[in-house]
Amino acid sequence: MTLGQQAESLAQGYLEQQGLTFVARNVRYPFGEIDLVMRHKHHWVFVEVKYRSANQFGGAIQALSKAQIGRIRMAASHYLQTHKLDVPCRFDVVAIEDAQIHWLVDAF
Predict the structure, then answer these.
(1) In whole numbers, what is the pLDDT of the chain averaged over residues?
(2) Is there a contact between 47 and 94 (Cβ–Cβ < 8 Å)?
(3) Which one of the record's GO molecular function terms can you name?
(4) DSSP for 8-74, written as a single string
């Protein structure tokens, strides 16, 4: 298991402990990828997981670019259309740094 996969598993477990329900992982399209798809009450939650072992080159949150946010939004839109879902959604980020988990709800 790669470090990225380990971080996604850790994030998934953490979010499940917070009351979210797992739906899918690593949803890939040619134009973007969604790390985790979860449900929280009436919302579908598209989660980007960022991992950094140290923040000497900027923390996990700083690793999320505007271009990447655009690709995630496009992938989420496609996911909703493909699954014929007309539901409220949000975009969360789980940042894992120095073995600490930071959950940013409705991050973008």
Answers:
(1) 91
(2) yes
(3) nucleic acid binding
(4) HHHHHHHHHHTT-EEEEEEEEETTEEEEEEEEETTEEEEEEEEEES--TT--TGGG--HHHHHHHHH
Domains plus CATH for the chain? 3-104 (3.40.1350.10)
CA nearest to 63, candidates 46, 48, 47: 48
Q: What is the pTM of this model?
A: 0.91
32-61 confidence digits (pLDDT tens): 999 999 999 999 999 999 987 765 555 666
CB-side neighbour CA atoms (13 Å) of 58: 7
Task: Give the whole-angstrom CA distance, residue 30 versus residue 41.
Answer: 30
Amino acid in position 71: R
Instruction: pLDDT band for 10, please (50, 70, 90 cuts).
Output: very high
Name beta bridge partners: 45.
38, 90
